[in-house]
Design goal:
The structure is a homodimer. Chain A contains 20 helices and 17 strands. Chain A is of the alpha/beta class. In chain A, helix 1 packs parallel to helix 6 and helix 14 packs parallel to helix 16. Chains A, B: Keywords: Thiamine pyrophosphate. Chains A, B: InterPro entries: THDP-binding, Thiamin_PyroP_enz_TPP-bd_dom, TPP_enz, TPP_enzyme_TPP-bd.
């Protein structure tokens, strides 16, 4: 057996059994090894951004990493933007990047590049394999790091390490380091601070703290102390809907966010980072809490976030306190919007018709700002979203979520400008017959940038600004593009048409795309 | 005026008047400044790989750099693959990457990343702007570096440097360093070696040495000494066709390349690198010339390549020697192929029908291996190709070439798998009404990888290998995808249909795509 076989076996012994792939010549031995492992599910992406975005969506829903197969530095470069988003979501991922044989690097062949320099900014762990026998240890380390950091790991596989021989060995599951213990002294201190600050305190969550149980426990703490609760602006996954905590997220528009947090004097971060402006704006602060707000980082993403929240609840004797902020079910039987379609009507219709146990992948950017709030009382669902601000993650996220959860409906809320970045992902939805409904908000502009231009004082656009901020002339025809990649699709210009198409899509299995012209 | 205005003015005073763009929020002041400069042509790409691929195609044909506008580290990450190809073509390029305001970086906002680490592997020059007043000097340095290295330059523009004030100033064109002088002693030595080795010597060219004049001069040297002539395996641009030098390129398949170069005892490199295998293959050498071949690097890409060749011709008294290897015009009036379409028939038909002064952008990968040779005697044309092996450059190259040369027909020879990487570029062809015919070789596989799998000894593919190497199930429908992006298209399954569609496309202006099902 060779190093590539050992690679597959090390993944499989750790229950990593999905590989999103876009292979090249230097990975042929890896492909051949995968071909000898029918228990590994290989999913092809026609562009590397699809591959890593899908691996991100998969791991967010499967709670374990997928592997990816990427081709040399330039192939991995295509994957970096969605590695960045995954890194910001603390998603476990094991990227395997093929490289030239070790002895071939000296020749500076055309595809040679500094893979480490490219990988580090978007990876929490980078490791170059040094021999065929080093493949197993390297993949084991990456697996453990992906779950314990947690985050994106990148392993560089020189071709001769893939084709080199290894001794057969009985593999054992890799030990993953236990998360850091909760610091009881800090718990006591934070509990005291929460008691003292009452409603001027807030708990801010991300990561595994946003699952149903831990979030409800945090809401018990809030009920006991009067504290507010927030999720970060962007998060890997939130379990939500009627009966769960209706947790607000920090707003994107800077003035709204400053307003939202202006009265917070104590901010307890559980996994979350200090909230900051997505961008700097002249004359506005970078940190969204006020200057004298006391910020306490109680736990970071690699820590035991649920355990931390439980310890806090215990310290406050709040385990049995009924949780605050539980969402009531949305009103039933209300009439759906009618008439000319707009973004808000799309959001309302999707929220009202949302099926139980759906997975929403949100890259709606400016069009879907109300959508998250529309869904507080919808049937229970998972909400996963663009995390790092690098657009082009939505369609791939749907791919990954649907691979992870074949029995659940995946609904992609997709801005049109963003969707074009990784539009190739539609083909993978068709190839794998994934149960995804993609709703494209076809406003035919980079609407978010229209707003930002106004923020810098430009209200009257000339030719060059229009050319760079509008996507019309020609309008994108999403129905034809989807058809070209094997995905059935329909176009809606009225709310009635949209509701009819959306109901139809919910009633069938397999990918469907709706171009909502707004 | 602000730093962004100074940026535009510095570009314009240096005659850099095209900006391929995909902007984001941190670049809004740059967009606003571009909007105040109608003399700057702004071309939107719906994905950053389109932007840098187009800038590459533009500069190869315009012989001057374009600017690009990219959004933060992750946006630039999407651009890296085609920066890599441009770097391998020694293409001048000025990438302007927006970043957070300097004082905002400390907050690690979602889009924050280590831009320098990402940029360096794919840039010959990287520079971070430090203040608004530093914008002009930084862009000037990048301009000079892009032409003198020559190559890809990346300038990082923090938002506060774009919006900060600068004093008005009268700008002057930036001085570009003169290329290194020819070393007459080395010329004499090489001339002596060429005389000595006769037909066992070869001159290998790339860069500006592949224009009509210098290449003909090199062919005079060959005629005078008996030396052979080669172009690198991949090159930025070759001026070719009937009456010009029919220069062979180094083959991609390793065994063919080794055979091609096996008798060369003296290799004179003028701009070119030592030929090496595109990949390493077990048991095969990395260098394509034999171990005792004497390799002499006479000039590197930043040097005066035409001057070097002239000096060599002078030393050999070959200026008036009739050049060797001049291509005779292809036979006229031969019947075109008929019947079921295949890749070779597509190549033959395009070569036979090629219009005078066309620009061919070749990313045909395995399907078009014969095409380059089919065109030796075709009407004179420019040939530009994928250089760095990072697929997804073809459609953007066509965009850039057509922007640079609006009066010339651009013909994209496009593999289907590669085309999907930057398929969004078709929209830019429609938006700008560019005169491009894209011929898609729809073989519905990664055909090159089928060959490489056989190279590693796998002839019988299982389910996983098929899933990763085939693009069928579902077949891509290029006609619908093109229509979705506003490009008219047709499909051909016979040689007659292909010839009819290709003739029709040549007879009109504006973008057209032909899906050649092979």
């Amino acid at each position: 057996m060779n190093g590539a076989d050992r690679l597959c076996d090390t993944l499989l012994v750790n229950d990593v059994d999905v590989c999103f792939a876009n292979p090249g010549t230097s990975e042929m031995h890896f492909v051949a090894a995968l071909d000898r492992k029918p228990q590994m599910r290989c999913v092809l992406g026609l562009f590397e951004g699809v591959v890593t975005g899908a691996a991100d969506g998969y791991a967010r829903m499967a709670d374990k990493p997928a592997a990816t197969l990427l081709h040399c530095g330039p192939g991995m470069a295509n994957a970096l933007a969605n590695m960045h988003n995954a890194r910001r979501a603390w998603t476990p991922m094991i990227n395997v990047v093929g490289d030239h044989a070790t002895y071939h690097l000296q020749h500076d062949a055309p595809l040679t590049s500094d893979i480490e320099s490219l990988a580090r900014p978007m990876s929490q762990f980078v490791r170059r394999i040094t021999s065929a026998e080093d493949v197993g240890p390297a993949i084991g380390e990456a697996y453990a790091a992906s779950l314990s950091l947690p985050g994106v790991t990148t392993v560089i596989l020189p071709a001769d390490c893939a084709w080199g021989s290894v001794e057969p060995a009985e593999l054992k599951r890799t030990q993953v380091p236990a998360p850091k213990q909760v610091d009881q002294a800090q718990i006591r201190e934070v509990a005291g601070l929460l008691r003292k600050h009452g409603s001027r305190a807030a708990i801010m969550l991300t990561g595994s703290a946003l699952r149903e149980g831990p979030m409800a426990m945090a809401a018990r703490v809030c009920a006991a102390t009067g504290a507010q609760i927030f999720a970060q602006m962007s998060n890997g996954r939130i379990e939500r809907g009627a009966g769960r905590v209706a947790i607000p997220k920090v707003f994107y528009p800077i003035d709204m966010a400053l307003q939202q947090l202006k009265d917070i004097d104590l901010l307890i971060l559980i996994g979350a980072q200090v909230p900051v402006g997505f961008f700097a704006y002249p004359g506005k602060p970078g940190r969204l809490v006020h200057e004298t707000c006391h910020v306490e980082q109680l736990a970071v993403p690699g820590d035991d976030l649920p355990g931390t929240i439980e310890a806090l609840a215990d310290e406050l004797s709040a385990r049995a306190t009924p949780p605050a902020f539980i969402a009531a079910p949305q009103a039933q039987g209300e009439a759906l919007p009618t008439g000319t379609l707009d973004a808000d009507k799309v959001c309302t219709i999707v929220a009202r018709l949302l099926p139980e146990n759906a997975i929403i992948c949100d890259e709606s950017v400016s069009s879907g700002r109300s959508f998250y709030y529309d869904c507080h009382g919808a049937p229970q669902h998972d909400y996963i979203q663009l995390t790092g601000g690098s657009i082009g993650e939505g369609i791939p996220l749907c791919v990954g979520a649907a691979v992870a959860c074949p029995d659940r409906k995946v609904i992609g809320m997709q801005a049109d400008g963003s969707g074009m970045y990784t539009v190739q992902g539609l083909w993978t939805q068709a190839r794998e017959n994934l149960d995804v409904v993609t709703v494209v908000f076809a406003n035919r502009t980079y609407a978010i940038l229209h707003g930002e231009m106004r923020n810098v004082g430009v209200n009257d656009f000339g030719r060059n600004a229009k050319l760079m901020l509008n996507l019309d002339e020609p309008a994108l025809d999403w129905v034809s593009m989807a058809k070209g990649m094997g995905v059935e699709a329909g176009r809606a210009t009225t709310a009635e048409e949209f509701a009819r198409l959306f109901k139809g899509a919910l009633g069938r299995k397999g990918p469907f795309l709706i171009e909502a012209v707004i």
